[in-house]
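In line with agreed milestones, the collection of sequences with tokenised folds has grown. A representative record is reproduced below.
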Amino acid sequence: MNATQAIEVLREENRALERRTASADELRDIVMRLEAEVEAARAEREAWCVSPFLFFPLSFVFVFMVRTSWVHLGRETRRPETPATTPVSITQSLSALRLEHAHLLEEHGAGCAVLHRREAELADVQAREVDARATADALLQTTRAAEDRATRAERTAALAEREVGFLNALNVRSPLDCLACLSSLGS
């Protein structure tokens, strides 16, 4: 297997891994959203279990308890025959606030998931940038080396041409030409 085939195999494996990563990111988004919903439901359940002293001023709770005859001077006297009713406006406000809180938690979870995905993409792009810079540097060095070799070859050729021109200017004959001239003079 030659290098180009090996590179193609690695690229195909990389594409397969990227597809797996994309599906994992989608699942991670879904998990984050579901975790936010669970957290919102858990917070709502805990809010319903908390004592009314945290939601209402103490004077309102005391008046409410006295009116329903639950507490009289700090002691329990009797339970009401009908359940105490909370004003509808307070119940509606509380429900609206809980729904808004759950919605905000869901948005936060989705935002965190998007942030994590973008951070992973950024890290991938930064790694690609480092690889691209390394490749560009290697190609630049190769180009410079080729340019240096070409320059040296051009200089060598120019020097050889000058030497040929110089020898032609001197009109130097070969020793055989000189012998032929001498022999023709002697006969």
